Known about the structure:
There is one protein chain. The protein is α/β, with parallel strands linked by helices. The protein folds into 4 domains: 2-37 and 110-205 and 294-324; 344-493, Flavodoxin domain (Rossmann fold), CATH 3.40.50; 498-593, Elongation Factor Tu (Ef-tu), domain 3, CATH 2.40.30.10; 595-733, Nucleotide-binding domain of ferredoxin-NADP reductase (FNR) module (Rossmann fold, 3-Layer(aba) Sandwich). Helices cover 39% and strands 21% of the residues. The protein is built from 22 helices and 26 strands. Helix 17 (612-619) links the parallel strand 22 and strand 23. Residues 153, 350-355, 395-398, 400, 403, 429-431, 434, 436-438, 466 line the site of flavin mononucleotide.
Amino acid sequence: MIRSIWRYSHLILAVSxxxxxxxxxxxxxxxxxxxxxxxxxxxxxxxxxxISITQTISGxxxxxxxxxxxxxxxxxxxxxxxxxxxxxxxxxxxDPNDLSELGTVEDRATFFNFMTNFHRSLFLKSTGRIFVxxxxxxxxxxxxxxxxxxxxxxxxxxxxxxxxxxxxFEQRYHVILxxxxxxxxxxxxxxxxxxxxxxxxxxxxxxxxxxxKENNYDExxxxxxxxxxxxxxxxxxxxxxxVFPFSEDPEDFYQIQLANREILIHQFTGEIVxxxxxxxxxxxxxxxMQLHTGEGNPIWAIILFISSGSILFFMYSGFAMTLKxxxxxxxxxxxxxxxxxxxxxILVGSETGKTFDFAYxxxxxxxxxxxxxxxxxxxxxxxxxxxxxxxxFTATYGDGDAPASATKFLKKFKQVEPKNPVxxxxxxxxxxxxxxxxxxxxxxxxxxxxxxxxxxxxxxxKINEQSFEQFRGWANNWGAxxxxxxxxxxxxxxxxxxKRTVKFKVLDISEVNIDNTFxxxxxxxxxxxxxxxxxxxxxxxxxxxxxxxxxAKIDGSILLSIKKHEFGKCSNYLGLLKKGQIIDGTIxxxxxxxxxxxxxxxIMISNGTGIAPxxxxxxxxxxxxxxxxxxxxxxxxxxxxxxxxxxxxxxKKIESFENAFSRExxxxxxxxxLLKNREFLVNAIENGAxxxxxxxxxxxxxxxxxxxxxxxxxxxxxxGDLDLNKQLKIDCY
Length: 733
Ligand SMILES: Cc1cc2nc3c(=O)[nH]c(=O)nc-3n(C[C@H](O)[C@H](O)[C@H](O)COP(=O)(O)O)c2cc1C
C-alpha cells in the first residue's frame, strides 16, 4: 500500500510535468556542454596560492592607465577589466605571474544565451520562469520519490548498488541509471528551485552593508601598497573579485570579495575599513549557481550533462513501463457460480493480473467438467455456503508482502468463520530472484494449516517466473488427487502464438517399461529446425488441448520419452503409434532451455522422462564438461535410456553420471545425490557451471531447496545470483 503511494505520486508527478521537463532536460543537457567547452581554453593559471594580491594589483596599476576589476573565475582564469594608455577599455585574460595578456574575453556565444533564456523561461518571460520553477520542484519530488522506490526495491540503502533483479530493458536501465543519477538530479532540481525562488524574491533578501565612521579617513599617512597589512596575507586563490577604487577620494576603497566574506581596504593606508561575512542565503545562492551550471568544474559539468541526458531516458522508460502496465489485460473473473453456490472457490492474489490468467485457465478446466466454480480476488474472501475446495493462487511482492489484490486477506481470514470444513491448496507465484521467494503464499499456507476448518490436501507449490509448464505440472497433480483430469484451456493469446503444423514420421517406438514409459523416435517430413530442449506439441484426435514434450535431437531425429498417464489422452494416443505412421505436430522453440555451449561445466539434473532433452544435448556435446544426475524408481526404470548413457560414457561425452533410486537400494532421490556431491557442486557453480533441471515439479522443488541450502552454507552466491548469471535453466512440468 505504502509502496503504491510512492509509485503513484512518482507517476502523477512525472506525467503532469512531462512536456516542460522534456524541454528543461534537453536545454539543460545542451547548456552543460558550455562549461566543458570553456574548460578547454588554455587560460587556467596554476599556483594562484603563491601569488599575493598586492603584487598583482600594483603590477596592473603600473601597467595600465586604469584598472577597474580583477576577477578569478572558478576555472582559475584571471580576468582583468582595464583601460589602456589609448583609452581603450578591455576585458582580458592575464597571467598574474608576468602580467602578460593571454586573450580577450569574448562575448558569450549567442547560441548559449539563447539556450539559457529558453531554459530559464521558455521565452515566456515571468510566466515561463514560474513554470520552470514549478517543474524544477516537481523534478525534485520525482527524483526523491524515485530514490525512495529504488531503495525499497533494492532492499535498503546498503543494497542500492547490489544486484539488479529486473530483466526487462526499460525496468533494468531505469534502475541502473537511477542509482547513479538520481542524486545529481536531486541536486540540479533543488538548486534550480532555489534560483527560481530567489528570482521571485521568495528567499530572504540579503545585501552586505559596510559601515565606517565618516571623515575618519580624511587624514592619513600613506603607505606603500606592497606593505598594506590587509592585503599582504591574501593570495589570488582566495579571491573571487577585486573592485578597484573608482577615484582618489579616500573614501573610495578596494572592495575585495573572498569565498565567504567581503572586505573594504583603504586605498592609501591599506587599513581594513570594514569586513562583513556573507549571509547564509548568499552563500547558498553562490553554491546553487555553481552546482546548477557546473561553471568552473568540468567534471561536475560532465556529470550534469549525463544526468540531464538521463532524465530523457527516465521519461522514455517510465512511460514505456506505464504503458505496458496500462495495456495489460483486465483480470477475467467470469465464472459459472456465485460464491454461495460454488463447490470450487478460486481466490487470487495478484499485482499485475498475470496470476488471474492462470486462475482463469484452471477455473475453465474445472467448468469443462461441469463443476460450479467461483473465482475472485483474495481481498474478497468471505463465507462460502457450498464450498468443498478452496484453491488459492497468489503472487508475492516487495519484501515478501501481499500483492494488491490480497492485502486485506489475512485480516479477513481471521475475522470470517467458515461455514463448512473445506479442502484447500495454495500455489505461490513468485521469482527465485527474490530472497523471499513466494513467502506470502507460505504465510497463507501456514494460516490455513493452523485453522481446523481447512484441510491442506497438497504441499505448497511454488511457480517460478510464471512458468506455464510448472503450473501445468501442479494442475495435473491436483487433478490426479481430486480425480478431475485438468486440461488447462487455451487463451486467445495462446491461439495467436500457435505454431505451424508439421508432419512427422514414426521411425521407432519402444516397449513400455515398468514405469509405463516409452521412447518415440520421429523424423520431420520437411526440413524443420529444432534443437534439444525445444518442445513438440501434439493434439490427439477429439482432444481440444495440445500436449507438449521435450525434444532430444539424436542423430538428426527427434527422440521423446513419454510416460503413459491413466487419463492421458495424448500419451495413450502416442503409445498406440506404429513404425512408419505419420502424425501432425508443432515445434515450439524453447531457447531458455537450450544447451549453454559456452559454459565450462553443465550439471544436468533430471528425474523420469525429464532426461530426454539431456540425451540429445549430451550426444551433440563438443567439449563441455557434463555431469548427469538422474532419479527414478529403480534400476529397471533406467533400462530404456541405458544404451544412450553407455554410448555417452564410452565416447567421453559426459564426465560423470549418477543414479538415485527411490524404491530400491539406498532409496534416495536425485537431490540426495547433490548433497553427497556438495563440494563439487559449489566449486563448479563458483566457476561458472550452468545447472539444468528437467523433470517433475516436485523434483524441481526438492532440488532447488537443496541447492539453496548448500549455497547458503558454503558460498556467497545465492539462487538469485545463479538465475541472474544465467547459471540456472529449468524446464519442469
Ligand atoms: C517489484 C517486484 C517485487 C517482487 N517481489 C517478490 C518477492 O518478494 N518474492 C517473490 O517470490 N516474487 C516477487 N516478485 C515476483 C512476482 O511475485 C511474480 O512475478 C508474480 O508471478 C507476479 O504475479 P502478478 O503478475 O499476478 O502480480 C516480485 C516482482 C516485482 C515486479
